[in-house]
Amino acid sequence: MPDRAPKPVDRQLPTDEARDLISLVRDIAQHEIAPRAAEEEEDAGRFPREVFTLLSASGLLGLPYDSECGGGDQPYEVYLQVLEELAAARLTVGLGVSVHTLASYALAAYGTKEQQAEHLPAMLGGGLLGAYCLSEPSSGSDAASLRTKAVRDDGHWVITGTKAWITHGGIADFYTVMARTGKEGPRGITAFLVPGDAQGVSAAPPEKKMGMNGSPTAQVHFDGVRVSDDRRIGDEGQGFAIALAALDSGRLGIAACAIGLAQAALDEAVAYATGRRQFGRPIADFQGLRFMLADMATQIEAGRALYLSAARLRDAGRPFAKQAAMAKLHCTDTAMRVTTDAVQVLGGYGYTADFPAERYMREAKVLQIVEGTNQIQRMVIARHLAGPETR
Length: 391
Ligand SMILES: Cc1cc2nc3c(=O)[nH]c(=O)nc-3n(C[C@H](O)[C@H](O)[C@H](O)COP(=O)(O)OP(=O)(O)OC[C@H]3O[C@@H](n4cnc5c(N)ncnc54)[C@H](O)[C@@H]3O)c2cc1C
What we know:
Elements: H1 16-41, H2 49-57, H3 76-89, H4 91-110, H5 113-125, E1 130-133, E2 149-153, E3 156-167, E4 174-180, E5 189-195, E6 201-203, E7 217-228, E8 232-233, H6 239-275, E9 277-278, E10 281-282, H7 287-315, H8 321-345, H9 347-350, H10 357-367, H11 374-386
Parallel strand pairs: 1-4
Antiparallel strand pairs: 2-3, 3-7, 4-5, 5-8, 6-7, 9-10
The structure holds flavin-adenine dinucleotide.
Flavin-adenine dinucleotide binds at residues 99, 131-135, 140-141, 165-167, 209, 212, 217, 366, 369-373, 375-376.
């Protein structure tokens, strides 16, 4: 077993309040999240709802949003470092907070004052959990071709269709749903806030996944779900723009989670390498492993710097979409490489469930896929460089 406890990441934080926040998060991560992570991710998995209730009660489920609406008024620079700490303890929790923040974005950024006053406090600090519904069985990367329909009916909308791969599908208290209200393509889509217990909302059994078993991912069916017009977020036809704006910020969350996961894998690898002896010496003495650890640490620091620099642009109100795509691409590729190398450092033990390295490696894979695959991130970056494709 490891004999070397990792040092906490030395963070640059802008305020004393932010430093207190990170201390609180580390305390929760260490005592309430990490100890049960391995056991609860096994086999069918168990979603730690009580952890989310605690995070909400501690003011940690609405950090980047306005305090007038129940948020924490924190800059992205701080919120993302909180996510990183949570993901290092358990990816299901870090990613879950990131998805909840993504699901809250439409209302927080595009809702009317009345809509925000009515719904946001419960979403950001009232113990509710959100889900973001863009993907469908036949539209993933090509999300603008979605087919779920919303049809006007006497001051209401009737939503019908199936969303796929929905994180928190079946357990969410609210769903932010992108549905077609007009013509084909991105301009025919509108965003809605649908209560989880609305009549006609149901979920398929959770997908059986490679990892992240504690985080339910399921198809969600909307079978003639009737919502009033005051649950429409933004203008008719604005839904795809809202969905993409949410993803620009959400990708920073995925980047931060990826770095947290990679950091956990590096800490595990260092602890093991300094404790395990071969040829009469700790394996951490061998240059082959020392260089591997050095490369892992360097990639992590570079990823952290990249997501923080994108976050600081966002906090300054400047464009950050290209940098968010770069951060998502780089940090999630880093997480895949570092977690794979961590398994290698642990040798045969790395391939067993006795150590978390193999779980980290399985979990890292999903981060290269969600919120736009890394191929899609490259398309986004290239469009900023060379303009849209000509065809
Ligand atoms: C665990 C998990 C949780 C998820 N949570 C959510 C959620 O909460 N809400 C939600 O809406 N969605 C969610 N998703 C869906 C996720 O966003 C999609 O899986 C992702 O966008 C890819 O879509 P797809 O799976 O349909 O793959 P496809 O779009 O079919 O892509 C298949 C492959 O083709 C590549 N490809 C596609 N188009 C291009 C192109 N133009 N150029 C180059 N390569 C291309 C892709 O990169 C990929 O490698 C989740 C997925 C998973 C696995």
